[in-house]
Structure formats: structure tokens, C-alpha cells
Amino acid sequence: MKRHVASLAFAGLGLVAVAIVASAWGFAPMAGEALSTDDAYVRGDVTVIAPRVAGYVDRVLVSDFAHVREGEPLVRLRTEDYVAQVARAEAVLRSREAALAANVEAQQEALAAIEQARASRVAGQAERQRSATSFARGETLWKQGVYTTESLDQARAARDSSAANVIRAAAAVDAAKAHAATLVAQAAGLQADVATAKADLDLARIQAGYTVLAAPADGVVGERMARVGQYVQPGVQVFALVPSRGRWIIANFRETQLARIAIGDRVKVSVDALGDARIDGRVTAFAPASGSDFALLPPDNATGNFTKIVRRFGVRIDLDGPASTVARLRPGMSVVVSVQPNRVPTTRRQVTAR
């Protein structure tokens, strides 16, 4: 009897040893057997909140690990410099707009000057015609001895003066037109100056608005990285925000297990931090490469002795619920996942050492 019990014990130990060796060498389990791993963690979006302008912290409006709503102010920077920039930009805009308004008024005056010069030219032409006719009549009378030489000379002078006035009037019209054209050309530059000043004012107002750092979504903030009076630079983190929604699992399975896992496979998730709580999920995506290939210095086995090591690949698992339990998850929590595969395992190649 004792010998029989000893035999059964040795047989049991042998089966355990075979199972351990099979697991170590990567042999697949039987079809339908769940695949589990504890190399799995909760993931979620973590938003870094950083200022877009430099400045001194005026107020920190929330405490560590506070629940915040979208748009809620978190940090305020001192605004004196940015308020002054807005005022300066407003003054520059007023100056540019005044210059443009003066140009428009000058154009109106130039158009009036053109009309006045044209009227003077028409009047001069009429006077030239009258004086020319008067001189011609006087010259005829002078030849007949009726008109004096002095009177003829006066008529000739009036004729020549009226002709000169016509020339001056024509030149005045041309000058007025040239002046108007110059004002029109200047108006284009002044309009561009006004547009630039408006853009500068908009930018100054936007930068002044950047002195308030608000929550981009509902969620929970991390530890404060800024204190009142601290000088912060653009892009330097002052808070991290974890949105209330958006949780998933990244489970790292051995490559020898991937052949039995498919998109849509059902998953059971247990969370270390939540005791006996269980969450349902499903496989939704596979990593495009092993974790080691994403390393800063990936391994290079081209030289030296080589020992094959089973790699791990990330598998994304989306969570279906219950919602109350999913809401308690935090990125970074450790979990244990169990995938119920639908595939029959394939034969594994023996791992050889070189």
C-alpha cells in the first residue's frame, strides 16, 4: 500500500515537472484554456497642462488631486505685462486708423482740387479765346489807323497772358491728379498698417488670455508643479490632468500565446487595487512591435552568442463594464487579465540555444 502511494506521488511530481518545462519552453495550452497574464496595467489619457506664455504665478486655484470641470481655471499668471501690451497695441491701432482716416480726407480734398483746377483751365481757355479775338479785332483796326499802337500792345499782352494761364491751369490739373494718385497708393500701405495693428492687438489679447490655465476636460489633477511667485516658462508642466473618461488595459502576452488571441476575444479583468472586483472586456488591438523594439537602445543580436528569449507584445483590451467599477480605475494600476481564446493552438517550434 505504501509502495502504491509512493508511486502515485512520484507520478504527480512528474506531471508537475512536465507542465513546468512545457510552460518554460513556450508550449501552448490546450484549446479553450484561458490565457492569463499579470503583466498588464490600466492605461488612460494623461494631459500635461503647461503655460503658453511666460510669467510669474499669481494664484494656484486648485489643490492636489482635485476633481475639476472642463474650463475651470487652475492657475493664473500675473497679467500686468500682458495688459500693458494690449494697451500699447490698442494705441498703435488708433494711430494707424487716424492716419488712414487722414489719408481718406486728403483724397477727398485732392479730388476737389482736381475739379477746381479743371474749372480754372476751362475759364482760362475761354479768356484766351476772348483775348485772342480782341487782339485780332484791334490789329485790324490798328491797320486802318483807328486803333492806337498802345491799345494794340495791351490786347497782345492780354492774349499772351490768357494763353499762359491756360498752360498753368492744365499743369495744376496734372499736379492735382498726381497728388490724388499718390494718396491712393499711400492708402494701400496705411490699410496694411491698420490690418497689422489689428492682428497685433488680437495677439496681445490672446496672450493676455493665456495667463489663465484652464482644465481642458473633466477629470482629476495630479500634484501641483507650480507655486505662487514661481516664474514659469512656456511648455513647462504645472499640472497633469487625468480625464474622467477613457480607460483601457495594455496586457503584455508572450509571443507564444499570440496565435490563440484574436480581435474580439472576451476578457476577464481583476484589479489588484479593487479586491474582488471583476471587469469584462474585449481584445481590440495588437502592438505593431515588441516592447523591446520601442526601447531607446533596442537589442542587437547580430554578434556574439545568442540565446532565444520569448518576447512579449502588448495587447489592448477595451473595457465594457460594469461602469461603476471602470470609473474607479486609475492609469498605472496593476491588473490580471484572462483571455478566453477561440482558436485552436498551433504547434510550437522548439526553442534552441545558439
TrEMBL record:
Pfam hit, one: BSH_CusB
Recorded superkingdom: Bacteria
GO BP term, example: transmembrane transport
CusB-like barrel-sandwich hybrid domain residues: 46-240
Protein name: HlyD family secretion protein
Organism (species): Sandaracinobacteroides saxicola
